[in-house]
């Protein structure tokens, strides 16, 4: 009987500490979406280099989309860049509790962005900043 009581007390303490962390998912959603956004930006850069065409990135407050230039020196992106997992147009929707700063830029065929970018992802009290370096296109 004492073991059962001690076990129940320990479970109660763990529940009191852990449950409030999972009650608000906004912080977790912001971190997860910022990681997915970094991955998508790296994919866009690698696709631009591999296909030797510009890849345009359009980030709104609720989604990211990637499009591909029609030819090597194309000034605009008119073709959809397929998502390798689904083979449909690449679109990454943000969770409802997450807001993202707007950005619009492109990677050239050497993987360089058209301009340096600083993208902010926020949810609850968690604010993540994603930076794209001008000369190298490095995403951090």
Task: Write a structural description.
- Residues 35-132 form the General secretion pathway GspH domain.
- This is Type II secretion system protein H.
- Pfam families: GspH (PF12019).
- Strands 1, 2, 3, 4 and 6 form a 5-stranded antiparallel sheet that branches.
- The chain has helices at residues 2-23, 26-51, and strands at 55-59, 63-69, 77-80, 91-93, 99-100, 103-107, 117-123, 126-132.
- The protein is elongated, with a radius of gyration of 20 Å.
- The longest helix has 26 residues, at 26-51.
- It is built from 2 helices and 8 strands; from the N terminus they run ααββββββββ.
- The mean pLDDT is 89.
- It has 140 residues and is of the alpha+beta class.
Question: Could you give a quick summary of the protein structure above?
Answer:
This is Type II secretion system protein H. It is a single-pass membrane protein. With 140 residues, the protein is an alpha+beta fold.
Mean pLDDT, all residues: 89
* Major sheet: 5 strands, antiparallel
Gyration radius, in Å: 20 Å
According to DSSP, the number of beta strands is 8
Give a quick set of tags describing it.
140 residues, alpha+beta, 3-stranded antiparallel beta sheet, 8 strands, 34% helix, transmembrane, Type II secretion system protein H, cell inner membrane, T2SS_GspH, membrane
């Amino acid at each position: 009987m004492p073991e059962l009581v001690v076990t129940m007390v320990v479970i109660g303490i763990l529940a009191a500490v852990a449950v409030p962390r999972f009650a608000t998912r906004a912080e977790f959603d912001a971190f997860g979406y910022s990681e997915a956004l970094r991955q998508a930006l790296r994919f866009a850069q690698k696709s631009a280099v591999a296909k030797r065409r510009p890849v345009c990135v359009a980030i709104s407050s609720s989604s990211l989309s990637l499009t591909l230039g029609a030819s090597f020196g194309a000034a605009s992106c008119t073709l959809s860049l397929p998502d390798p997992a689904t083979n449909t147009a690449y679109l990454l929707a943000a969770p409802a509790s997450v807001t993202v700063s707007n950005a619009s830029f492109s990677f050239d065929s050497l993987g360089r962005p058209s301009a340096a970018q600083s993208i902010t992802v926020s949810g609850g009290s968690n604010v993540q900043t994603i930076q794209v370096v001008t000369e190298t296109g490095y995403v951090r």
